[in-house]
Design a protein that fits this description.
- This protein is α+β, with helices and mostly antiparallel strands.
- The protein contains 20 helices and 15 strands.
- The chain has helices at 8-22, 26-36, 50-67, 71-75, 78-88, 93-112, 120-123, 266-273, 276-305, 323-352, 356-384, 396-408, 413-427, 447-471, 477-510, 515-534, 536-541, 547-565, 568-573, 579-583, and strands at 128-132, 148-152, 157-161, 169-173, 181-191, 194-204, 215-219, 230-235, 238-241, 252-253, 259-260, 307-308, 317-318, 602-605, 608-611.
- Strand 10 (252-253) and strand 11 form a beta hairpin.
- The longest helix has 34 residues, at 477-510.
- The chain is globular, with a radius of gyration of 26 Å.
């Protein structure tokens, strides 16, 4: 199987599906990033050591910054930040990390908090911005950080200190690598001994060579995957002026030296300070979507030009011709479209300005579900490409470790899904907001019925969670939550799947009649039926499926896999990956074997370089 676009109708179908994945204005929203990653500075390098690769990361950050009309404009545009992660993620996970920190967490927070600060050093990258929130002893409970910033009335500023080893800032890219750095430090504001909550403070950290006085920076062990200069950072009586506080209505020090806030809850002040973390969740989702699409496209291409012996010594066939090979890739394609659609839905809801709490919860649910699905897709694609995909130069192993970072960054998946589960468990009346009004089984060919089944799964799981909580002894909130958390987390997963299914339904309805709508409808049904089959016992017990329907599910899924598998090359063509990107992954090319016959080829192997020897 090879990807071909051989007719105007096929080309139009591909463009329509690209619009489904990337949005109606995909050329305007994504074109800049597609062109950027096609240029020479973003080709896969022949740099072997960790330090060389780290230096390249910051070199590329400067290339990126030079190409922008305005770094401030990028930082203020959540869609552009998401697109940055969606396209840079498959190219350079380390660059994606430092760019996301600089433009979103650092510059974005400065812009959100207003003031008349001179940002020119950061916009021109004379100083690189970083973000210091989590500590050795405080990760997902960042509201409990212990780094202190005590208001000094005499000097009208703040003194930062790290009280013990557990309060060291953990993982920020604070070394002098790449150039001088300034950080936004999350620290507990103390005014006359009173704890006013956690706020952000603008603190210079390094010059071009070393840490500044009072700042201690130590590199952490190298993280698996793309190198970033992750560090431990601590403060010993570091003084910064009053302008260092990123204040606002949530908290400020007045001209009289008194603290005031419109929020009487310290946790709410903290959440107002780190509001950019929500945009960071969207960016992590985008990065995972981009990485999953890239690995899937490579796996489909490789499967089409990797030939194996046919049955009983017959002529060779592409490995993708086997059901055991194309079946998982077909299912992964349905999932990747669902991931993309859920990401777009969460981004649209967040920007829509409607129910803010619900939109923020959907962003968190999408981040957890999409990044977990991305890991599954990348692992599947890696396996379908065999040992070739274990080689660093073929890119997949790097993206797998990159998506592990996305699973943990901007709120660990389990933590943010547990928070969403608790909110949905206690906020929703028994029976659920989407309880079915239609009664019993419908037809498995009806996408609306399939969507109803996915909505019912959410209701079933939250119903179980509530029942377990009712039976648990009162007086021990943790014990009550523990008995309910398992089904409640399954309810969050079901909610994500239902949201994705709804986004699928809307996307199919928006397409004109024709091949693109047919292809998307097949993917929609495959995605839904695959999830329904995994939960068929619960749906049967609830009277929502018949025994005959349950028995027929495997055949329905197989029929759709065959339909989708026949279209895989064209479907991955709709991902709109630049040919320059695909050329960086040797196994994506039909001539991948030739790379092993090149006596001058250089392979990176854990920092050492070995030349392929010509033994002829």
């Amino acid at each position: 199987m090879t990807a071909t676009i051989d007719s105007p109708s096929t080309e139009r179908s591909t463009d329509l599906l690209t619009g489904v994945l990337l949005g109606d204005n995909f050329r305007r929203e994504h074109g800049f990033w597609q062109r950027l990653i096609s240029t020479e500075p973003f080709r896969r390098p022949d740099r072997s050591t960790t330090e060389e690769r780290l230096a390249l990361t910051y070199e590329r950050l400067r290339v990126l910054n030079d190409c922008l009309d305005s770094g401030a404009q990028l930082a203020a545009d959540h869609r552009a930040l998401a697109a940055l992660h969606e396209w840079l993620g498959p190219v350079d996970p380390a660059l994606t990390t430092v760019a996301g920190i600089h433009y979103n967490l650092f510059l974005g927070s400065l812009l959100d908090h207003g003031g008349d600060r001179d940002l020119s050093d950061f916009l021109r990258l004379r100083r690189i911005g970083t973000f210091l929130c989590t500590e050795v002893a405080h990760g997902n409970d960042a509201a409990a950080v212990e780094t202190a910033a005590e208001y000094d009335r005499e000097r009208d500023g703040f003194v930062l200190r790290t009280p013990h080893a557990g309060a060291q800032k953990f993982m920020p890219n604070t070394s002098p690598a790449g150039g001088p750095k300034t950080g936004l430090v999350a620290a507990r504001l103390l005014v006359d001994g009173a704890d006013q909550g956690v706020f952000l403070f603008l603190v210079p950290l390094t010059d071009g060579v070393q840490a500044l006085p009072g700042v201690r920076i130590r590199r952490l062990p190298t993280r698996t995957g793309s190198p970033v200069d992750h560090c431990l950072t601590s403060f010993d009586q570091v003084f910064v002026g009053r302008a260092a506080l990123l204040g606002g209505d949530h908290g400020r020090i007045g001209a009289d030296g008194e603290f005031s806030s419109t929020l009487d809850n310290r946790r709410r002040r903290f959440l107002a300070s780190i509001g950019r973390v929500t945009s960071g969740k969207i960016s992590m989702t985008a990065c995972a979507v981009g990485c999953a699409r890239a690995t899937l496209a490579v796996a489909v291409r490789y499967g089409g030009h990797r030939y194996v012996s046919g049955p009983r010594g017959s002529r060779q066939v592409p490995v993708i011709a086997h059901r055991s090979h194309h079946g998982p890739l077909a299912s992964a394609t349905a999932t990747v479209f669902a991931m993309s659609l859920l990401h777009r839905r969460a981004l649209d809801r967040w920007e829509g300005g409607g129910q803010r709490e619900e939109a923020e919860r959907l962003v968190a649910v999408a981040k957890g579900w999409v990044t977990w699905q991305a890991r599954s897709v990348i692992v599947e694609c890696r396996e379908r490409c065999g040992a070739q995909a274990l080689l660093e130069n073929n890119g997949m192993s790097e993206l797998l470790t990159g998506v592990e970072g996305a699973i943990t960054a901007e709120g660990d998946n389990m933590a943010i899904h547990a928070k969403a589960a608790a909110e949905m468990l206690f906020a929703t009346a028994p029976g659920g907001p989407e309880a079915s009004s239609g009664g019993g089984p419908g037809e498995l060919d009806d996408p609306r019925f399939l969507g109803r089944l996915l909505a019912e799964l959410e209701r079933i799981w939250f119903g179980r969670a509530r029942e377990r909580m009712r039976r648990a002894p009162h007086g021990d909130p943790l014990a009550r939550w523990n008995v309910a958390s398992g089904p409640a987390l399954r309810g969050v997963e079901a909610h994500a799947q239902w949201q994705a299914a709804e986004a699928y339904e809307e996307a199919v309805a928006a397409l004109p009649e024709g091949p693109a709508r047919e292809r998307l409808g097949e993917l929609q049904r495959l995605f839904a039926l695959d999830r329904i089959a995994r939960n068929s016992g619960d749906l049967l017990a609830a009277g929502l499926l018949t025994a005959d329907q349950v028995n027929g599910l495997p055949d329905r899924v197989e029929e759709l896999i065959a339909m989708v598998a026949a279209q895989l090359p064209d479907l991955v063509e709709s991902f709109a990956l630049p040919p320059e990107l695909l050329a960086d992954w040797p196994i994506a090319g039909a001539d991948y074997v030739a790379a092993y016959d090149d006596p001058g080829a250089a392979w990176r192997t854990g920092g050492d370089r070995a030349t392929v020897q010509d033994e002829r």
